[in-house]
Design a protein that fits this description.
By secondary structure, the protein is an alpha/beta fold. The protein is built from eleven helices and 21 strands. The strands form six sheets. It has a five-stranded parallel β-sheet, with helices on both faces. The longest helix has 17 residues. The structure holds zinc ion.
Length: 427
Amino acid sequence: MTSGTAASLAAMSEERDPLARLNLLLDHLRAENEFQTKRLPEGRLASIEDLRRLPLTTKDDLVADQATHPPFGTNLTYELERYCLVFQTSGSTGSPLMLLATPEDWDWWRRCITTVWRAAGLGSSDRVALAYSFGPYVQFWGSYEATQAIGALTIPLGGMGSLQRLETIGVYGATALACTPSYALHLARRGLETDRAEAMRTVERIICTGEPGASLPAVRSEIERSWDAQCLDHAGLSEVGAFGYPCPAGGGIHLNEDEFLFELVDPVSGDPVPAGEVGELVVTALGRSGSPALRYRTRDAVRLSTEPCPDGHRHPWAPEGIIGRTDDMVVIRGMNVYPSAIEEILREVGGVGEFRIVFYTDPMAMDEVKVEAELDRPGDAREIQERMRTRLGLRVRIVPVKPGVLPVGEGKARRVEDVRETSGAAG
Ligand SMILES: [Zn+2]
């Protein structure tokens, strides 16, 4: 490392004022990062609002850069020798992206996710079971680091099937479980089906991330009911960092403004969206210099509350967490529909296992929606249909299916198919 790099890193890690920190980061990137040098405007930013002088960054920009400059692209600030960890996005929405972290960046990741663990109420006496694979995805590694950082016992559940995981949770007396919300529900159902409720008894907190859901009231309450535990949500992206921590009293997430800058924009026009309205979250990471994230379009749809949260947390509050992915938003018969709104109704009625939402074109050339679902009580189909009609204004066909027919994913559940002849999907 050159003495100039060392001095820049030291200055960036000591600065706490967001604008000064951002300017130090930008100066450093202009000098060292090929991808950013081409994009950054000249001169220092005079205010946080000046951030808008920087271009938005999309995942497609980074994927295209890696395709042209394989394997890691040019959004790199240092020689490869400086990096200590590589992870990748799941590729559930497009090509996977590879991300490299330096030791300093990884220290910062740990700090951000430790904030999440502390906000969730976890401490050194906890035993935290991590129901993630040891794959190249950051959720496991981030959760592992945070659990270590707070001095809790880490219980890795990678490489195990659901029943072995339940047994391990029981044997070690796990007090918390970290996983996706759909996997929390799946594991609870497997536990109840196989008389393993006793193994679930010690779990007090379910810490969810990876997909929208844990902040939807009906999903959260089903997770809480089935585990008899508190469900907490958090949010982050490999490309950006762990930016959202849970609000235990109010539900949903807070945006960690100590380490990130946030904007909400209209997903189509890119114009700013005021608090109280749904917009796409755009994030700038202040503590990440090796593979920086500047004005990164997360594709996460978020609504910020105009009221403070009941706990008095000082950071912006999104009571509904991540409402959905702007890529998942489907325009059907002229209406914007987030699949999470359909899931919310399924969970409210209860007794629903796996499900799949299919958008299709019927022979009369109308766009239609059907939901294939495992229903404990097939007679509920009519009730679900009626709620969707009144709440979403959507005519939805509910098709009960036998358990085991639909695929189960432990990562981001693939629950939406759009097989219309002319797709109206946005994004
Ligand atoms: Zn709060």
